[in-house]
């Protein structure tokens, strides 16, 4: 068991039978009263942020986690199959663990957070950006160039996003997977 003096950014702990990752912390030593540690923690399963204050010397349970890169292979019913490129081990990830499954592309390298002692996957993180082709969008009208005007478009993964009016079918674009927003047109 560790105590509050071991808290640092990125540390994973078990608190109230749930796994949390420390995002920010601050040791506070007021002039009057005991010292304490103020933290911002992200619950690993849900992604919710929790503000919590630990009294100085409070015992915490540290959980060892590992971040591993896996390649997305295919969807198998309600789960997705990923492969470790080092040892070719495959792992099934439940659809509920994937935040934006509509951006998954075959062959894409994703980062999976594993509970090191139990060897169970906890969180799947997509790459920050993907490059995809526009499969369908309405044609732009000449002269319709108002600033920041967007139109719906479908990309090769099947996701629907909003793109500027000048984007046409067959063009390749860069998309932010965290927000689902068009970033830029990619030159071939």
Describe the protein.
- The chain is mainly β and 188 residues long.
- It folds into 3 domains: 2-62, SH3 type barrels (Roll), CATH 2.30.30.30; 65-125, Beta Barrel (OB fold (Dihydrolipoamide Acetyltransferase, E2P)); 129-186, Nucleic acid-binding proteins (OB fold (Dihydrolipoamide Acetyltransferase, E2P)), CATH 2.40.50.140.
- The protein has strands at residues 2-3, 12-15, 18-28, 36-43, 49-55, 59-62, 65-76, 79-83, 90-94, 109-115, 120-125, 129-137, 150-155, 160-164, 172-176, 181-186.
- The strands form 3 sheets. A 6-stranded antiparallel beta sheet has the order 1-6-2-3-4-5, with no helix packed on it. The chain has a 5-stranded antiparallel beta sheet with strand order 9-8-7-10-11, with no helix packed on it.
- It is flat.
- 16% of the residues are buried.
- The model has no long low-confidence stretch (mean pLDDT 88).
Give a quick precis of the structure.
This protein has no helices and 16 strands. It is mainly β and about 190 residues long. It has three domains: about 1-60, SH3 type barrels (Roll); about 65-125, OB fold (Dihydrolipoamide Acetyltransferase, E2P) (Beta Barrel); about 130-185, Beta Barrel (OB fold (Dihydrolipoamide Acetyltransferase, E2P)), CATH 2.40.50.140.
**How many helices in DSSP terms?**
0
Q: Compute the separation of the termini in Å.
A: 54 Å
Strands of the widest sheet, in order across it, are 1-6-2-3-4-5
Strand content: over 45%
CATH fold-level label of the largest domain? SH3 type barrels
The pLDDT mean sits at 88
Global Rg: 22 Å
């Amino acid at each position: 068991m560790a105590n509050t003096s071991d808290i640092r950014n990125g540390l994973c702990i078990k608190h109230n039978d749930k796994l949390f990752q420390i995002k920010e912390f601050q040791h506070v030593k007021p002039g009057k009263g005991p010292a304490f540690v103020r933290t911002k923690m992200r619950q690993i399963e849900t992604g919710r942020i929790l503000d919590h204050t630990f009294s100085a010397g409070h015992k915490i349970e540290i959980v060892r986690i590992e971040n591993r890169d896996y390649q997305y292979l295919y969807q198998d019913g309600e789960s997705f199959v990923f492969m470790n490129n080092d040892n070719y081990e495959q792992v099934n990830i439940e659809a509920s663990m994937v935040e934006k499954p509509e951006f998954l592309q075959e062959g894409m390298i994703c980062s999976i957070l594993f509970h090191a002692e139990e060897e169970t996957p906890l969180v799947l993180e997509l790459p920050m950006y993907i490059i995809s082709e526009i499969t369908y969008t309405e044609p732009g009208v000449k002269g319709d160039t108002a600033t920041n005007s967007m139109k719906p478009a479908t990309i090769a993964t099947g996701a629907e996003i909003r793109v500027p009016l000048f984007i046409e079918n067959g063009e390749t674009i860069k998309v932010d997977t965290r927000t689902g927003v068009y970033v830029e047109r990619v030159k071939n």
